[in-house]
Inverse folding.
């Protein structure tokens, strides 16, 4: 080889296009049509719910006995319920509750799950054994049974309690995922390199291992939101969750079994929205899984 | 240019004043690294151990390059990691500049890492894919509080220049680089703390042959420029011959021979070294056709259950009764030429 081994490559403009891994994941997500459609649907749902007072001229809780069980019409696109309240309005306000419960409960679950999984996976040995046996124990409780028990205990749960209870009953999946990815990452060379360079545990965990375990956490969290929405609906349907007159998609279905015959729209529309939200979230979760799966990165880069 | 043996042009011209001055930067004594094998899910009991490194002694002098060669799985990499305390050694001493590392506390050892660094084998696995090159190279500066903000950026750019990369690359991610470039990033990270000692763990075996020479030359230039001491781990004998001042040969967790480069390559004492060297092709058809290979039979025995006596006796053509009974001592047969064999020499 002629000349110095230290040959500086041709200068490249600093503003050259930089495609980070997240950017590539975003592009792959964009290519996943059902997921993109789901983002649009869910986004619209969330936006309309958030802006409910601006969108709807009606009050979600005001009883109008003159307009009981009105069929869907221009004035009431989804009809009215047993107390003459506009169903569309209640669905929007209910969406606020249901979506917020879903997102916040998952936030609790992911935080706890990540913490437990990190401790177990990084420190290993007896910490791992103790924490994972605890996870096994938590898994073995029937969730619905516990939810009902809490519901009865609190005589119907408030917004905050329901989030806490749902979150604290559903962090185990995340903790196992996080633990598994810590186990596989902590012996990788770049983690060893960080330790060799003199990084402390905290930096290794937060700068090196966690960012590389984000993909499965994000997917699990997304799918978890759907689960939490359904759990909240179930509880409220049973009368143990969000208490009327505050609407939630679940408690709007409370009288559905009897109303199905006289005013089917009161049962169909809230159910439809639960379905829409859950399906959208699942599609988004699917899209994220495909976008963040490292195997796709490999196949793309060949 | 390919890195080849026998050519005299590769004889290094570097000053030998610091070599052999008796000032050892690293002293390793009776170092053992055993990995326990356990059984059971809750109550784990130890059923054995992989004796990856099983009692080795050597020293590295300031400014020299000690090559460490051996087959895959003989414990070369484990030795490097045990020296840097990335693995906690089972037994033995590791003295760096007369400071015993095996008994240092976590924080003290962390500070010592400023003085000793490592270059890793696989440039695809040793860089965090979620960090930019600037953050990767800047990390050592951050954790040791060496530079911050603008000063850090400038240091990183300087380091990139030193290893032959474009200083504008700081905002890029590792996947945007080739293997050789990535290895240069790894070298820059190791240099960031201005270490005295670097363990190079097969730094070129994952690279294309054309790139290997570049990285080797880079490492040599850096050694001269920054007065570095290397422990160079490799399985390619030609490369080791090219870069090393002294060479240690490892077999199944032990060093079987250690000598100055010329001595080891010209008159190896241990039959295992002889067999290894006979396998090196010679880039001269006339000589190559006369080269006699010593073909070893059998596989490397398991390090879980190494053979009795001399570990090499199961594959050695010279083996006698004594070889399977008595573990030969690691003796200085000639000045600065150690070997562990009952029947050393040709």
């Amino acid at each position: 080889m002629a000349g110095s081994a230290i040959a500086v490559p041709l200068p490249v403009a600093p503003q050259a296009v930089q495609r980070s891994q997240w950017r590539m994941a975003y592009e792959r997500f964009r290519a996943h049509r059902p997921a993109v459609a789901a983002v649009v649907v869910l986004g619209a749902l969330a936006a309309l719910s958030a802006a409910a007072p601006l969108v709807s001229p009606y009050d979600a809780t005001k009883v109008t006995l003159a307009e009981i069980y009105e069929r869907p019409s221009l004035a009431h696109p989804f009809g009215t319920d047993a107390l003459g309240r506009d169903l569309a309005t209640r669905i929007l306000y209910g969406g606020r509750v249901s979506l917020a419960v879903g997102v916040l409960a998952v936030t609790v679950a992911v935080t706890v799950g990540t913490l437990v999984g990190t401790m177990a996976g990084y420190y290993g040995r007896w910490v791992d054994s103790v924490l994972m046996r605890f996870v096994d124990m938590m898994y073995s409780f029937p969730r619905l049974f516990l939810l009902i028990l809490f519901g009865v205990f609190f005589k119907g749960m408030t917004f905050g309690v329901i989030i806490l209870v749902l979150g604290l009953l559903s962090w185990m999946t995340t903790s196992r995922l996080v633990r598994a990815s810590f186990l596989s990452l902590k012996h990788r060379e770049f983690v060893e390199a960080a330790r060799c360079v003199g990084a402390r545990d905290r930096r290794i965990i937060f700068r090196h291992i966690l960012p590389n375990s984000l993909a499965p956490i994000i997917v699990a969290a997304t799918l978890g939101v759907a689960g939490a929405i359904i759990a909240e609906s179930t509880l409220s349907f049973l009368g143990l969750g969000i208490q009327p007159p505050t609407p939630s998609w679940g408690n709007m279905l409370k009288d559905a079994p009897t109303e199905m015959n006289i005013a089917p729209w009161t049962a169909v529309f809230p159910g439809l929205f639960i379905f829409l939200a859950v399906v959208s979230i699942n599609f988004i979760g699917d899209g994220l899984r495909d976008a963040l799966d490292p195997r796709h990165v490999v196949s793309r880069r060949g | 240019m390919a890195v080849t043996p026998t050519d005299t042009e590769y004889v290094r011209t570097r000053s030998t004043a610091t070599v052999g001055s008796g000032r050892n930067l690293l002293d390793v004594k009776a170092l053992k690294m055993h990995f326990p094998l356990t059984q059971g899910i809750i109550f784990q009991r130890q059923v054995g151990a992989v004796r990856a490194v099983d009692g080795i002694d050597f020293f590295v002098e300031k400014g020299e390059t000690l090559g460490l060669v051996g087959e895959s799985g003989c414990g070369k990499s484990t030795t490097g990691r045990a020296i840097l305390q990335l693995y906690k050694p089972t037994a033995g001493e590791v003295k760096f500049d007369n400071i015993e590392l095996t008994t240092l506390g976590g924080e003290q050892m962390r500070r010592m890492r400023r003085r000793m660094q490592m270059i890793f084998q696989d440039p695809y696995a040793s860089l965090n894919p979620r960090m930019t090159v600037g953050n990767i190279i800047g990390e050592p500066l951050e954790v040791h509080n060496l530079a911050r903000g603008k000063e850090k950026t400038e240091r990183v750019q300087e380091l990139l220049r030193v290893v032959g990369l474009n200083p504008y690359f700081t905002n890029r991610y590792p996947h945007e680089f080739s293997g050789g470039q990535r290895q240069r990033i790894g070298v820059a990270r190791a240099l960031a703390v201005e270490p005295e000692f670097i363990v190079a763990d097969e730094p070129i075996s994952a690279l294309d042959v054309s790139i290997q020479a570049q990285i080797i030359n880079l490492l040599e230039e850096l050694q001269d420029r920054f007065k570095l001491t290397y422990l160079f781990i490799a399985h390619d004998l030609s490369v080791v011959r090219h870069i090393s001042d002294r060479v240690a040969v490892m077999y199944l967790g032990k060093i079987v021979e250690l000598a100055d480069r010329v001595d080891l390559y010209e008159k190896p004492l241990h039959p295992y070294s002889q067999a290894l060297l006979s396998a090196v092709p010679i880039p001269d058809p006339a000589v190559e056709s006369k080269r006699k290979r010593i073909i070893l039979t059998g596989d490397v025995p398991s390090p879980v259950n190494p053979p009795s006596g001399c570990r090499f006796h199961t594959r050695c053509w010279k083996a006698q009764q004594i070889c399977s009974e008595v573990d030969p001592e690691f003796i200085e047969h000639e000045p600065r030429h150690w070997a562990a064999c009952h029947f050393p020499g040709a």
